[in-house]
Amino acid sequence: QLQLVESGGGLVQPGGSLRLSCVASGFTLAYYRIGWFRQAPGKEREGVSYSSWGGGSTIYADAVKGRFTISRDNAKNTVYLQMNSLKPEDTALYYCAVTQKTIPTMSPYDYNYWGQGTQVTVSS
Q1: If you write DSSP's letter for every residue of the chain in order, what string do you get?
Q2: CB within 8 A of 70, min separation 6: which ones?
Q3: Which of 21, 35, 46, 117 would be a feasible disulfide site paired with 93, CB 3.0-4.6 Å?
Q4: How many of the other CB atoms lie within 10 Å of CB of 54?
Q5: pLDDT at 108
Q6: Residue 95: what pLDDT?
């Protein structure tokens, strides 16, 4: 059974850092393009970052560019999202997901399999 499980969320002060993890089971993550998304209360789910199979191609939303870094360890079937210089507006439920699309995309509609999410709250 294909499964994605996120972890690493929590409460952090503005300017702080968190590293989210997304562990895949039931399939080989190396064969998939993967994305991180977030959804704040009352807002639509939005793409945060994207990684190609080998990690050589990445995309970031403008709001997180220069602060977030996506990486993957295919040997561990895991993808990470390093989040630095966190801001209150980064508060959201963060999801990882995989797509079978053959082009880079951060549209949630292009992603087939999703994790349950991990909550990130940035507050003083």
Answers
A1: --EEEEE--EEE-TT--EEEEEEEESS-GGGSEEEEEEE-TTS--EEEEEE-TTSSSEEE-TTTTTTEEEEEEGGGTEEEEEE-S--GGG-EEEEEEEE--SS----GGGEEEE---EEEEE--
A2: 36, 49, 50, 51, 55, 58, 60, 79, 80, 81, 82
A3: 117
A4: 9
A5: 96
A6: 98
d(CA 90, CA 112) in angstroms, rounded, equals 24
Q: CA distances (Å), 46 to each of 2, 28, 60, 89, 92, in order?
A: 23, 25, 11, 13, 10
- Return the closest-CA partner of residue 104 out of 18, 33, 29, 9: 33
If you search the block for the tokens 């399999």, which residue do you land on? 113
Model pLDDT, residue 19? 98
Q: What is the pLDDT of residue 56?
A: 82
Q: Mind listing the pLDDT tens digit for each residue in 46-87?
A: 999 999 987 789 999 999 999 999 999 989 999 999 999 999
Mean local confidence (pLDDT), 112-116: 95
